[in-house]
Amino acid sequence: MAEAAIPAPARRPVLAGRVKAALVLFGLFAALPPVAAAAGDPFLVLIATRILAYAIAAMALDLILGFGAMVSFGHAAYLGFGAYAVAILASFGITDIFVQIACAAGVSALFALVTGAISLRTRGVYFIMITLAFGQMAFFFFISLSAYGGDDGVGLRSRSTLFGTDLLENDVTLFYVTLAVLAALFLACHRIVGSRFGRVLTGIRENPVRMEAIGFTPFRYQLTAFVISGMMTSVAGVMLANQAEFVSPAFMSWHRSGELIVMVVLGGIGTLAGAIGGAVAALVLEEALGMMTEHWPFWFGLFLVLMVLFSPRGITGFVEKLGRRRP
């Protein structure tokens, strides 16, 4: 993976550079609402909020994919748990976003704990298939909930409340709250991967047998990371439901899980900041190509193939390569 080829003495400045890259992205996002207002296109703020929500989910997936080598093909299930937490709790009059996030994270932690404990007893393609199976089970469970629209989904009467107010009804406020959540979770992920836990997880990714021989239990560390990742992804679902003001099982289909993996690969596996950049690149390309042609998936696929062929470490690797070439 990305970090394996980097010598230990050089790893710290590389990580610092990626933190700076994330800060640059956050700064650019923070400047977007005034730019959108000046351009007379407030719809840009809604699109950017959607991008931020998916960036949270991609970063959470990168935590297990990039640092734990766990290719989860059912990770969109946690997006659905977060989104449906908003819809179901709102139907009972519970609209506080912190309560909704807590419930979504709790359900996701339980689901990840049970399914992860089973999935992690497998390896390789078997792990991929069993996570896909669990994700589809969750998908069809929510399709069966006719009280919440079944396959058609359900619209939200209003967005979540923040500190008992309807501040999130304002698109710009929702955007900045989502940006703040992304920044906070990025900091948390950065601290996790830089901690002893993160170093052990990376060691397990490189050689689980050797890590077990020196006294670490791979299963325990991988399961913990799996649960943390699921909880973080559910937060993205909460923000996505508020952005769309609509909840549907489509949020948790296997296609969505595939899109999250594409975002991580496009940005650069095992970089965190790259996952954010990958989400931005993928969704901006989707919007731009969609405006030009109805065959945009073909051109997006071609771009992805070229990126993998000429920059296997994604956008992050490409940018770092350019940086090393500068005099």
Automatic annotation (TrEMBL):
<feature type="transmembrane region" description="Helical">
    <location>
        <begin position="47"/>
        <end position="69"/>
    </location>
</feature>
<feature type="transmembrane region" description="Helical">
    <location>
        <begin position="219"/>
        <end position="240"/>
    </location>
</feature>
<keyword id="KW-0472">Membrane</keyword>
<feature type="transmembrane region" description="Helical">
    <location>
        <begin position="125"/>
        <end position="148"/>
    </location>
</feature>
<dbReference type="GO" id="GO:0005886">
    <property type="term" value="C:plasma membrane"/>
</dbReference>
<feature type="transmembrane region" description="Helical">
    <location>
        <begin position="98"/>
        <end position="118"/>
    </location>
</feature>
<feature type="transmembrane region" description="Helical">
    <location>
        <begin position="173"/>
        <end position="193"/>
    </location>
</feature>
<dbReference type="InterPro" id="IPR043428">
    <property type="entry name" value="LivM-like"/>
</dbReference>
<dbReference type="InterPro" id="IPR001851">
    <property type="entry name" value="ABC_transp_permease"/>
</dbReference>
<keyword id="KW-1003">Cell membrane</keyword>
<dbReference type="GO" id="GO:0015658">
    <property type="term" value="F:branched-chain amino acid transmembrane transporter activity"/>
</dbReference>
<keyword id="KW-1133">Transmembrane helix</keyword>
<protein>
    <submittedName>
        <fullName>ABC transporter permease</fullName>
    </submittedName>
</protein>
<feature type="transmembrane region" description="Helical">
    <location>
        <begin position="296"/>
        <end position="315"/>
    </location>
</feature>
<feature type="transmembrane region" description="Helical">
    <location>
        <begin position="76"/>
        <end position="92"/>
    </location>
</feature>
<keyword id="KW-0812">Transmembrane</keyword>
<dbReference type="Pfam" id="PF02653">
    <property type="entry name" value="BPD_transp_2"/>
</dbReference>
<feature type="transmembrane region" description="Helical">
    <location>
        <begin position="260"/>
        <end position="284"/>
    </location>
</feature>
